[in-house]
Amino acid sequence: PSSLNPGECELVALAQNHIPYFQTVMVITPNGPYVIPTTVEVSENAVFTEGATVRMNLSLSNVGVSSASQVYATLTPDSPVTMLQDSVFVGDMNVEATENRNNAFSFVMPEAEDYVNLPFTLSVHWYDTTITRSVSVRVKLPKVTMEEYTTTVNHSIVQNFVAGDEVIFSFTNQNRGHAEAAYGSIDLTCNYSGVTVTSDMYMIDHLAPNEVAEVNFHVEIADTVPNKSLVPLYYHIAYNNVHHIDTLYMLVGSDYETFE
User: Fold this and answer.
1) Cα–Cα distance between 162 and 6 in angstroms, integer?
2) Where is 55: in which H helix or E strand?
């Protein structure tokens, strides 16, 4: 059909009571050059944290029947993205030639959620012809969360505490994102008088997607802490320039009085 653009096309043969047959064929232009993008992808080890520079590689192929001259490509964002390098010059391309350009484009990573798509329009130009393709970049970020925690005193799980207790907080953390968390830390702190966290900060070297990290912190409650004290503690997770703080509360003594 005349509506087919040059490039790969999948043909499907169907017959009743037979298994469908699939075959990929190359559609070529009947005359002149035709340059298509064969690969548009982010560079290896790309980091998608806000403010980072993301680079993209490009591969072009001339699937036409004659050479293409003055070939270049441009990348235009279809969302609020700041481009650092939005064009690359390739030059002349012979029939069946392929040109690879590493770091052809680059942009500043905006604030974005894990696993969203950033849309772009790729334009390939030669002589007096331009073709466009829609491309997208899948954002992959780590997302370390505290899933649950338990508190124990003398190996028994408890929720209320008394002055003089040494409490062990056991936290389960998981990377629910799509990229590795690295060079981070997990810490538990308390500014309440008489309550001291005696454990050191836990360092995150590498935490792969879906990987779990179990962390324990020891907390000492002094004998001077008054009854019915509601003590705030701060659970701080930091990685890849991301900081998240959860506030936990520890009840010391009874929250009610008994009258006799």
Assistant:
1) 76
2) strand 53-62
Which structure tokens are listed for 124? 């390939």
Residue type (1 letter), 136: S
Task: Give the CA distances from residue 104 to residues 34, 55, 56, in Å, rounded to whole numbers and listed in that order.
Answer: 20, 7, 6
| Model confidence pLDDT, tens digit, residues 105-143 | 999 999 999 999 999 999 999 998 999 999 999 999 999
Q: Could you give the CA distance from residue 164 to residue 245 in angstroms, rounded to a whole number?
A: 27
Residue 211 sits at φ, ψ, to 5 deg, of -70, 150
What is the amino acid identity at position 234? Y
Q: How far is CA 90 from CA 87, 105, 167, in A?
A: 10, 13, 65
The model's pTM: 0.77
- Contacts of residue 64, defined as CB under 8 A and 6 or more positions apart, other chains included, come to 6, 28, 29, 31, 32, 33, 34, 35, 95
**Cα 159 vs. chain centroid, distance in angstroms?**
36
pLDDT, residue 241, reads: 83
Maximum distance among all Cα pairs of the chain, rounded to whole angstroms: 102
The upper half-sphere exposure of residue 16, i.e. CA atoms within 13 Å in the direction of its Cβ, equals 0
Q: What are phi and psi of 207, to 5 degrees?
A: -130, 105
Spatial neighbors of 128 by CB under 8 A, at least 6 apart, are none
8 A C-beta contact, residue 93 and residue 56: no
164 vs 225: CA distance, rounded Å: 8
pLDDT along the chain (260 residues), means of 10: 58 75 66 92 90 96 94 96 97 96 97 95 95 95 96 93 96 96 95 97 95 97 95 96 94 62
Percentage of the chain exceeding pLDDT 70: 91
